[in-house]
User: Fold these one by one.
Assistant:
Number 1:
Amino acid sequence: MPLSFDFQINFGRGASVEKILLRLAISFLAVIPAFAFASIKMDLKPYVDFALEWTSYSYHGEPLPKIKLERHQLVQIFAYGDYEYAQAESKGVELPTVYAIYLADEKTIYISDQLPLNDKKIDVTLAHEMVHYLQDINGYTRSLNGHTVCSESEAYDVQMLWQKIKNVDPESIQYVYQRSTLAAIECMGSKGSAFHSAMQN
Ligand SMILES: [Zn+2]
């Protein structure tokens, strides 16, 4: 990557190390607002109640997750990991859009800034993410040892139920159903491919 014009001028005039560091610090500060995320206050009770109703998890008043609005690109990177994200970018492959993600380590739901806050899809998204929250606090997520795809089918199923019962975005339900099935097959690993071929014949 070529150095920017601004950067070359600063080095070209024999700037001292202090000046260079100061310059770098200022450039860094200028970048921060782009990374800043907004915390959102939301009543998560309806979503946790819904997820409890359709799963076998329990909830004993643990603190509910924080919600933060984050840049779309970062939410995609959180969801796919930087390696898979970069691979897809370089191959020009479009990864399915992820509108939100629950990070268990931070007990935080990150919502993509691409989704308008008054959009009904926010509710759908929260119903899905609250399943991940319950999986986390009930010890299921940890038991997967990183094979997190196994947590997805259940979250998609609860999401579908929310969409169906509350009549939100009904045309996408079929797609969500496919995602759920795919996640269940992926969860099975090599047995998943065997299952898939057996079902095709
Ligand atoms: Zn999920």
Number 2:
Amino acid sequence: MATALDIAKRNPNAAPVAVSDAARAAGFVEKTAELNVVAGAAPGGASLIGLTRDQLKDSLAAIGVPERELKMRVAQLWHWIYFRGAKDFSEMTNMGKELRAKLSSAYTLARPQVVSEQVSKDGTRKWLIRLASTGPLDKGAEIECVYIPEVDRGTLCVSSQVGCTLTCSFCHTGTQRLVRNLTSAEIVAQLIVARDSIGDWPHATPPEGAFVPTDGGRFVSNIVFMGMGEPLYSTDNVIAAIDVMSDGEGLTLSRRRITVSTSGVVPQMERLGAEANTMLAISLHAVRDDLRDELVPINRKYDIKQLLDACRAYPGLSNARRITFEYVMLKGVNDSDADARELVRLLKGIPAKINLIPFNPWPGSKYECSDWERIERFSEIVYRAGYASPVRTPRGRDILAACGQLKSETEKLRARARMMAEQGIGAEGVYALGDGE
Ligand code: SF4
């Protein structure tokens, strides 16, 4: 796992991958470790935002805080960063002036830059976030993060990778080529950005006219790992981020309100349940292997049977902790009565709920959304078999924030990538350009 001060230095051998056309044609590229930003020397001015307790401890030790004080100082920093949302070390009044000065000269509490915020007419917010540079030539990759407020909850959809290698054929995000895993700090930072923006800290207030939950709870009460990327290709970082998000002395999100959605990285599922103890969602979308091979190409490696066996073995599975199966409704593709009946048969014995997702069209997609009557009929068959089968109301359609539509501005690097490839410059150079246009 990457250590505290790693966020500013990339492993020179760990170039983000520009997925080749051949690899894409094969369906997916299964790379994990080499997509990570890994340990390096501490740069001046690195942000402490998103770091784990161990990483904060290392950061304090690096500026000479004595070993005997480290535990107490970490607890203080933790409280200020994750409970109060401090943006400046000068706020940390229970720390001596000398230590605050040392912290200020070595580190920052900088958040990733919010490049843009879009607010849907239904209250959904989408942020385009530029991550800190990971090397001298990197202007910072961009990711998206979406907040979906309801009366009794506020759900934040976070990304785990820059882009995605998995090329699910109905997913807009999957058309983005350039990929690296986010560090745990970069995952946590999305929650910090959201809390800043909607005023979800003690003594903060939401922006004028913002739609936030009104039940008296936190404005961000739930996290779903359903943004860009496959979380179980970055399991270490995702688990570390969940540990920070759910820590009872800081961000205090219940693990029962954190859902990790996987397209089916079977070997990592048991570990996720055992170590992170979160809810699990599966992007199923098809009930036959031939169709799922096309819609969710990782199925060619881990087929439906292997996937459902891993679901049955998911730690902590019970009627109170059911697995959510996501099923996108594609007209004439996967939405027949026979598909619904097969879905029910396949899930027999698995405590499950089924989310039916009306397909959100995006420019260039080859699918259409099923007709409403068809979705209702499908839902009825599933419901009569004893499964909750809510139809997910599309949110944020007007700002392309709905499921499967996340795709950051780094997309425009493609054209630049091609140009540089022609000039004999490798993927590292392409990636390092950032958006800069
Ligand atoms: S659905 Fe998820 S795993 Fe599939 S391409 Fe989109 S982001 Fe990647």
